[in-house]
């Protein structure tokens, strides 16, 4: 029971990677896992499956709602141990064709959303003297990718924020750790519509010759969220089967 007693928050927790993390944390005995998402159906399913999961309808872009959610968590639990900034979207196009709206929307969710959540919960962890923040970046944030100017900018930005916060939240001796996971290509609803040609190309460039499973990301998040990783901070862990460009 690696998460015993821990109060956890996972954004984008209703499906895909977020859902797999919510399930792993719940199975490993978390006191409560708040799954935050816009997808109420997915949240209800999780709540009915796990006693220690609470679904909360929340957009990571809504700063007022996030401030209210923080008050609620602190009133109910008195603390937060783990924050996973996982919610993310794509709006792909070559730069010539990318609209300003595509750019703004992806920045708002993937980059500012991570800032919005961490601005509320990071200081609470620092006050308590401990905590673990996990930001979900991407291989695309390290290597770039055709058609993903907006997405790559956010995922690279998430890595820069991870390193900054690792330093900021550890001031005054606080054991608040901040790390990022950079998944390769993982089977989730986000990647299910990728053309077969792209999937085959990705597999051929991946040392393990396959796409990853959501559980393989969730297991890494579990390690970073648990006390087993107590001396790891400011790191970007690639979980990509050896994908190289
Ligand atoms: P997904 O689309 O399957 O799930 C994303 C979830 O986030 C959905 O439930 C959605 O409702 C939620 N969401 C979207 N906007 C939101 C908002 N404003 N507020 C709250 N929730 C919101 O995607 P996924 O594949 O599970 O990806 C999860 C994260 O992992 C994303 O940040 C993504 O960029 C990253 N990632 C995924 C892969 C992959 O191959 N699947 C690879 C690298 C990185």
Question: Main attributes?
Answer:
245 residues, two-stranded parallel ribbon, Beta-ketoacyl-ACP reductase, 18% strand, KR_dom, 46% helix, SDR_fam, 7-stranded parallel beta sheet, Sc_DH/Rdtase_CS, Rossmann fold, binds nicotinamide-adenine-dinucleotide, alpha/beta, oxidoreductase
Q: What is the chain-wise order of helices and strands?
A: EHEHEHEHEHHEEHEHE
Q: Tell me the CATH topology.
A: Rossmann fold
Number of strands: 9
Spatial strand order of the main sheet: 3-2-1-4-5-6-9
Characterize the overall form.
globular
Q: Give the count of helical stretches.
A: 8
Determine the mean pLDDT.
97
CATH top level is Alpha Beta
* Unreliable spans: none
At CATH level 2, the architecture is 3-Layer(aba) Sandwich
Alpha carbon gyration radius:
17 Å
Alpha-beta classification = alpha/beta
The overall number of domains is 1
CATH 4th-level superfamily = NAD(P)-binding Rossmann-like Domain
| Residue share in helix | 40-55%
Q: Which strand-content bin applies to the residues?
A: 15-25%
**Main β-sheet description:** 7 strands, parallel
Report the span from N to C terminus.
38 Å
Bound ligands: nicotinamide-adenine-dinucleotide
